[in-house]
Write a structure and sequence with these properties.
36% of the residues lie in helices and 18% in strands. It has helices spanning 5-14, 25-33, 93-103, 122-136, 138-141, 156-170, 193-197, 206-216, 252-264, 286-300; strands spanning 46-53, 59-66, 75-79, 106-110, 149-154, 178-182, 241-248, 269-278. It has an eight-stranded mixed beta sheet with strand order 1-2-4-3-5-6-7-8, sandwiched between helices. Helix 6 links the parallel strand 5 (149-154) and strand 6 (178-182). Helix 3 (93-103) packs across helix 10 (286-300) and helix 4 (122-136) packs across helix 6 (156-170). The longest helix is centred in the middle third of the chain and has 15 residues, at 122-136.
């Protein structure tokens, strides 16, 4: 469909916003804070910040969102987006609350390290550390004696979430029951059809993504599966997946290609494309759609 009028208005509002490679990185990070929604936070069961050890044993925080009700609840470790270089727990708080409520799942949001200060695979190891911690504390957090545990992420967080499923499989655990990938970037080559057709003019640009990968993984071979999960030769044994893409998103084909590759490897996949929207303006249907698919995926599971 055509670009949605609200997405068109967002583009007009953004105007000629500077690309991150053209301004100091701290200035780019500060600009993101202007996108934080204002108003009272959505009420859910409970929210708490907890300190854990990160991937290198360093102090790291997670923010745990618990739905209303008595549980036990499915649980997901959520790696935030931001092109690997920006993002905070506060920046994504509204979205995590909304997904917790819509999915009726516990969300463990990870404050993984940012690049270029921390480079591949350090942020990935942070998300894996959060997975291990969550699996070890599932009962206390509200997941029950045998919690269903998954990983989730949007944009670059989707990259980290997909890579963590490979790590967990190849390291022998913790076992994962599902994955939720929302507008994920999954190939450091940035060379798909949508990446070229939508390379400019839709806020997120191909040039920005290539630059972001260089901040995250300078000198790393782009074909490495933990950097480019779309290029992994073996996707067998990975957890069932929800994959949601955005029509006017340069990364659209990466997510849809990964969904197809997972299905070809025998992984159960539920997918959807949000029409008329942008990577940075996914619209009001994104969270309800992803949450609905996740509930359906979990209902299909044989326990």
């Amino acid at each position: 469909m055509a670009l949605h009028p609200d997405a068109q208005a967002f583009l007009a509002k953004m105007g000629n916003a500077p690309q991150p490679q053209d301004i100091p990185i701290e200035e780019f990070r500060e600009a993101a804070s202007a996108l934080i929604p204002t108003g009272p936070p959505l009420k859910i069961g409970a929210v708490s910040n907890l300190p854990i050890a990160g991937g290198d044993g360093q102090p790291m925080q997670v923010r745990v969102y618990v739905p209303e009700g008595s549980g036990p609840f499915p649980m997901m470790i959520w790696a935030h987006g931001g092109s690997f270089i920006r993002g905070t727990l506060d920046l994504f708080d509204a979205g995590r609350r909304a997904f917790t409520k819509a999915s009726n799942c516990i969300v463990v949001a990870v404050d993984q390290r940012l690049s270029p200060e921390a480079r591949f695979p350090a942020p990935l190891e942070d998300v894996y550390a959060a997975l291990r911690w969550t699996a070890g504390h599932a009962r206390d957090l509200g997941g029950g004696a045998r919690a269903l545990i998954g990983v989730a992420g949007e944009s670059s967080g989707g990259n980290l979430a997909a890579a963590v499923t490979l790590l967990a499989r190849d390291r022998g655990g913790p076992p994962l029951d599902f994955q939720v990938l929302i507008e994920p970037i999954l190939d450091a080559h940035c060379d798909t059809t949508s990446m070229h057709e939508l390379a400019e003019g839709y806020v997120l640009t191909r040039q920005q993504l290539l630059w972001a990968y260089q901040q995250y993984a300078p000198g790393v071979e782009a074909n490495r599966p933990l950097l480019s999960p779309l290029l992994a030769k073996d996707l067998s044994g990975l957890p069932p997946a929800v994959v949601v893409t955005i029509e006017y998103d340069p990364a659209r084909d990466e997510g849809e290609g990964y969904a197809a590759a997972l299905a070809a490897a025998g992984v159960r996949v539920l997918s959807a494309r949000i029409p008329g929207m942008l990577h940075h303006f996914p619209g009001p249907d994104l969270i309800p759609t992803a949450a609905k698919l996740l509930r359906e995926l979990l209902q299909q599971r044989t326990l």
